[in-house]
From TrEMBL:
Belongs to the universal stress protein A family. The lineage of its organism: Bacteria, Bacillati, Actinomycetota, Actinomycetes, Micromonosporales. Residues 6-144, 157-281 form the UspA domain. InterPro entries: Rossmann-like_a/b/a_fold, Universal_stress_UspA, UspA. It comes from the Bacteria. This is Universal stress protein. Pfam families: Usp.
């Protein structure tokens, strides 16, 4: 869905602004339109709505108009700074996680900050991000506090693979981002030494190399490395995120239980990664 818009969860918070910066950087490479989405959850008691928006109670039309102005100004500022991009803003009503999940069905990508306020109801670290990543119908990128979203970051795109079909989808997503930005692609596979020690590593290495080979052919100039790392997948990817510009993971791989929509590795990355995290699933 190369022409589908990049949807950005936006509520005027610092983390939402970082998410918007990341989305605009993605759009400059892909040419996709960007839509700022403020999810307005009506309050039944007086409380915080958003930056520059007065608290109110249902039905607070004044607060709603202030939110619309906030989104309109943010979209206008982003357009002025990026004249080649199509950038719009829209306010939706309802529970934030549910609304974003519904809107993701028509989006090419959904980008969120790890925390927020106002339209995201006092987001704790990863709470709404985990819920949306588990149920969204498009790739979800979570930009954590302090993440560097721009091309000034020289690091590679890192992706975790385990041979499962979901991880192959994540690999394709990662390869496209690395090729767009002309940065290396680092493919990581976690393994646990068996009774025979590292004797099985050559076989695992060959299997991962076979998985990567189609993307080497598709993007002939892409610098690809494959690393097998002993230990847990989450620890491996969190460590790799220290010098990566983006770390990519499937919603769940071979280690996930059949009923789980989001694996423990994805959840740990959303909570602890040092760079933006992309959680990718098949549509």
């Amino acid at each position: 869905m190369r022409d589908a818009e990049i949807l950005v969860g936006y509520d005027g918070s610092t983390d939402a602004s970082r998410a918007l910066d990341w989305a605009l950087d993605e759009a400059r490479h892909s040419g996709q339109p960007v839509r700022l989405a403020y999810v307005f959850e009506w309050l039944t008691v007086a409380g915080w709505v958003g930056p520059g928006v007065a608290p109110g109670v249902w039905p607070d039309d004044t607060a709603r108009r202030q939110v619309e102005d906030l989104v309109r100004r943010a979209a206008a500022d982003a357009t002025a700074a990026n004249p080649g991009l199509t950038i719009t803003g829209q306010v939706y009503d309802g529970p934030p996680a549910l609304v974003l999940q519904e809107r993701s069905a028509e989006a090419g990508m959904l980008v969120l900050g790890s925390r927020g306020h106002g339209g995201f109801g006092g987001l704790l670290a990863g709470s709404t991000a985990v819920a949306v990543a588990a149920h969204a119908r498009c790739p979800v990128v979570v930009v954590r506090d302090g993440d560097a979203p721009s091309d000034t970051s020289p690091g590679p795109v890192a992706v975790g693979v385990d041979g499962s079909e979901p991880s192959q989808v994540a690999l394709g997503f990662a390869a496209e981002r690395a090729a767009q930005r002309q940065v290396p692609l680092r493919v990581l596979h976690a393994w646990t030494p068996g009774p025979g020690g590292p004797a099985g590593v050559p076989d695992e290495q060959a299997a991962i190399e076979e998985t990567v080979e189609p993307w080497r052919r598709t993007f002939a100039e892409l610098d690809v490395t494959v690393d097998l790392v002993p230990g847990s997948p989450a620890t491996m990817l969190i460590e790799a995120s220290r010098d990566a510009r983006l770390v990519v993971v499937a919603t769940r791989g071979r280690g996930g239980l059949a009923g789980m929509l989001l694996g423990s590795v994805s959840q740990q990355l959303i909570q602890h990664a040092h760079c933006p995290v992309a959680v990718v699933r098949e549509r």
